[in-house]
């Protein structure tokens, strides 16, 4: 009887593994975003992370903006929207979060 249960367990586990391999979750890609205000592709965890880091779309501190933060990823030819090294999703240049760090100018 134990062997039968073990075989059932193995088959169930194998089915679960194969179903996860057959339909992998799509990874969020900032390069594919066309509307920098659109957050629909982000998971609930990523949305919560943005919130927990105090991300605000408009800075309450005029000198502390995302575009002068060390962690900011500016838009590029491949990426229409700015981003952040701490969380996924588009980031506005004039936004702010509590982890703002001044950009270091390497002269």
TrEMBL record:
Keywords of this entry: 4Fe-4S, Electron transport, Iron, Iron-sulfur, Metal-binding, Transport
Q: Which residues form the High potential iron-sulfur proteins family profile domain?
A: 37-105
A Pfam family annotated for this UniProt entry: HIPIP
InterPro entries per the record?
High_potential_FeS_prot, HIPIP_sf
Span-the-membrane segments of this chain are none
Organism superkingdom: Bacteria
Tell me the subunit arrangement. Homodimer.
What this chain does, per the entry, is described as: Specific class of high-redox-potential 4Fe-4S ferredoxins. Functions in anaerobic electron transport in most purple and in some other photosynthetic bacteria and in at least one genus (Paracoccus) of halophilic, denitrifying bacteria.
Family according to the record:
Belongs to the high-potential iron-sulfur protein (HiPIP) family.
Q: Per its record, how is this protein called by name?
A: High-potential iron-sulfur protein
User: What species is this protein from?
Assistant: Cyclobacterium plantarum
